[in-house]
């Protein structure tokens, strides 16, 4: 999946941002579960990438004044 940049996120609506946040959160949960069970992740940098994307989303939502 391509990384989302803050410039792209600012053009999205609040509903789209919240939906994307939920999707990324579930992906992160899945990746963490896979690694905690002792399995080797397909992409080792994926967890770091997901965490950064979630942080970007939360930052943009906070700038827009959306309370989660």
Task: Summarize the helices and strands and which ones pair or pack.
Elements: H1 6-10, H2 14-36, H3 46-64
Walk me through what this model shows.
- The chain is mostly helical and 68 residues long.
- It has a single domain, classed as Helix Hairpins, CATH 1.10.287.310.
- The chain is built from 3 helices and no strands.
- The two termini are 25 Å apart.
Helix content: 55-70%
- Main sheet: strands, sense, barrel: none
Oligomer: single chain
Please give the radius of gyration in angstroms: 13 Å
**How do the SSEs run, as a string of H and E?**
HHH
Number of helices: 3
CATH architecture: Orthogonal Bundle
- How many structural domains can be distinguished in the coordinates? 1
What are the main properties of this structure?
68 residues, mainly alpha, Helix Hairpins, 3 helices
In brief:
The protein has helices at residues 6-10, 14-36, 46-64. The protein is elongated, with a radius of gyration of 13 Å. By secondary structure, the protein is an all-alpha fold.
